[in-house]
Design a protein that fits this description.
This protein is mainly α. It is built from 4 helices and no strands.
Amino acid sequence: MKNIFYALLCMAFSVIIGAAVFEHIAVWPQMYAAPPQSLTMIQGEYGLNGGKFWMIIHPIVLSLFIIVTILTWRTERRRNVWIPFAVYLSIMVVTTIYFVPELIAIGSTPFNETIDASLQRRGSTWINLSLLRLFILIVTGVYLYLGLARASVKVSSISQASPAY
């Protein structure tokens, strides 16, 4: 059971990484290319709404992290779960404080055919910081995956006695 939940956590975490890579290749460069005109791709009734995806995947990953943390509490794998969990929570806090509000602020700029250089700079800063966030997620994901190779045996709290001579 531990292995199944751990594998599900790794898969869900990989979905987050894959979606972030997709957005960095297909969405953000286009969106921030010539704002505010290029922002129309996320505006209006038929604009791209990635928020729906993120609102579904994050609670799933969070729930799986909690379950796997409980299941690995006294095993060799605990560090491979706790550290990524802490990093993930930190990234979620930063995302809530900076990335989402800045994305909403930039994305809600009214249409104009004249390129706004300040919006381009803000968008460029947002992309660069988001790439750093993605890099941290990838490294964290690798560390999480390494836990799958560790034994799922309990760690003994009692030190083994030295052999009798």
